[in-house]
Design brief:
about 70% helix
Length: about 110
């Protein structure tokens, strides 16, 4: 079935909040709506998978930055661009009623 306008709006909000709050925003919406909507359940899982993946990817960057006395911190820029592009694409997909596909997301929640 096609998602309702409210579901599409909440999916959009979930992915935009992911950019600004990390996993906290999507987690709150997902926990509240996952049992009411399969559409929001899947989008919430996708957003959380991506945010957890970003956390995992940031750990080696932090280690490299420490080892190189901060020079390795330039690796944060590609990670930031990945988050910006990923959340933007997912927000558009969520609002248009499509399933979302985050780039480089590890599928931890299914």
């Amino acid at each position: 079935t096609s998602p309702t306008q409210e579901e599409r709006n909440l999916a959009l909000l979930m992915h935009i909040l992911a950019f600004f709050t990390g996993f906290i925003g999507p987690l709150v919406i997902w926990l509240v709506k996952k049992d009411e909507s399969d559409y929001l359940d899947q989008h919430g899982k996708d957003a959380l998978n991506f945010q957890i993946s970003i956390l995992i990817y940031s750990l080696p960057i932090a280690v490299i930055a420490i080892i190189t006395c901060g020079i390795g911190a330039v690796l944060v820029l590609p990670l930031f661009l990945l988050v910006l592009i990923g959340c933007g694409m997912a927000a558009m997909q969520g609002y248009s009623g499509e399933p979302c596909k985050y780039p480089l997301a590890i599928q931890l929640l299914n």
